[in-house]
Design a protein that fits this description.
Low-confidence stretches: none
Shape: rod-shaped
Oligomer: single chain
CATH class of the largest domain: Alpha Beta
Radius of gyration: 37 Å
CATH superfamily of the largest domain: Histidine kinase-like ATPase, C-terminal domain
């Protein structure tokens, strides 16, 4: 027990010595020992040894000094190697186990503690940002829903009543009023076009089909109505029934498919698009693949950050808030494949 206590005391004292002092003391000992040993050896054998033996002894002394110096440096720099391992663990797993520091010194302990504190602060800020993002997304969806309902109930009803009034007015006019009838018909056509555009906007804000018929029907409706109108062949494969999904999961998958389809229309120059939905025991996957021009992922990501076009980052944030992830595979001339996976057990 006494020997163990002495070893612990020695180790504790060692942690108070900085790396600089360890290396300086070690090198100093090597230099002093080499000088003393070389001087004594030279005085003792200078009259009896030949020149080549003196050179041999000098070479041996230099080699021993280098080996001892290497061993001292290797032992003294152990804390830095341990700190490097901890930094690698932190970058890969997000955890910094302080107890794995072996033979530490005051500087590396302080640096490891600072890294650990910084990691904890980053994790706390990351959680706060996730909470703010979730609140912002929920508020955005609620606002979209309110605007859609307001447009549908107020503006939509007003346009409908306007069309009905124009129909009634046209029916009351005598046949001889051809010019006035044409103007009324043109006005009614403008009102009908405005109503159709309003319905498109309302469905884009919050498609009622998502609440009424479910996720698959909503994605199929949006993709077909937009892709086929642009002359793009569209296919969708989905199971007849999906596992029970929360409202957040359904709207997240719909928004991701909506953004993907819009990007295909704007940038891909594709001829065909395939959408697949896979239902698994603990997750649901959405895959959207096109045969368009494709792009370089790293270049596009850097340019998006510089230009503040954060569509993909926003979609990734939506998925991560629900414990999911997004993967994208693309290269110039080979199309793009977007895959989303959301866990159903956490929804």
């Amino acid at each position: 027990m006494k020997s163990f206590s002495r070893f612990s005391n020695w180790q504790e004292k060692l942690t108070r010595i900085s790396l600089f002092m360890r290396i300086a003391v070690g090198n100093g000992l090597v230099i002093v020992a080499g000088a003393i040993f070389g001087t004594l050896l030279t005085r003792h054998y200078s009259s009896t040894l030949d020149g080549w033996l003196m050179a041999l002894f000098a070479a041996i002394g230099i080699s021993l000094s280098l080996v001892i110096n290497f061993l001292i440096l290797n032992a003294a720099l152990i804390p830095l190697r341990e700190l490097r391992k901890l930094a690698n663990q932190m970058s890969s797993s997000g955890n910094l186990p302080m107890e794995h520091l072996h033979n530490p010194d005051a500087d590396t302990v302080s640096l490891a503690a600072a890294l650990h504190s910084l990691l904890n602060q980053l994790e706390e800020r990351n959680q706060e940002l996730h909470a703010l993002s979730r609140r912002a997304i929920d508020a955005q969806e609620e606002e979209r829903k309110n605007i859609a309902l307001s447009l549908h109930d107020d503006t939509g009803q007003a346009l409908t009543m306007l069309i009905i009034s124009l129909d009634q007015l046209e029916a009351r006019l005598p046949v001889q009023q051809k010019e006035l009838i044409k103007e009324i018909q043109a006005s009614r056509q403008l009102a009908s076009n405005a109503l159709a555009e309003l319905r498109r906007i309302v469905f884009g804000l919050r498609p009622s089909i998502l609440d009424d018929l479910g996720l698959v029907s909503a994605i199929r409706w949006h993709a077909r109505s937009n892709l086929e109108a642009a002359g793009i062949t569209f296919e969708m494969h989905a199971p007849e029934t999906l596992p029970d999904l929360s409202s957040q999961a359904s709207i997240t998958l719909y928004r991701i498919s909506q953004e993907a389809v819009n990007n295909i229309l704007r940038h891909a120059a594709a001829h065909s698009v395939t959408i697949r939905i896979y239902a698994q025991s603990d997750s649901i996957r959405l895959e959207i693949k096109d045969d368009g021009r494709g792009f370089d992922l790293q270049t596009e990501s850097d340019e998006a950050l510089e230009s503040q076009h954060l569509g993909l980052l926003g979609l990734r944030e939506r998925a991560e808030l629900l414990g999911g992830e997004i993967h994208m595979d693309s290269s110039p001339g080979h199309g793009t494949c977007l895959e989303v996976c959301l866990p159903t057990s956490k929804n």
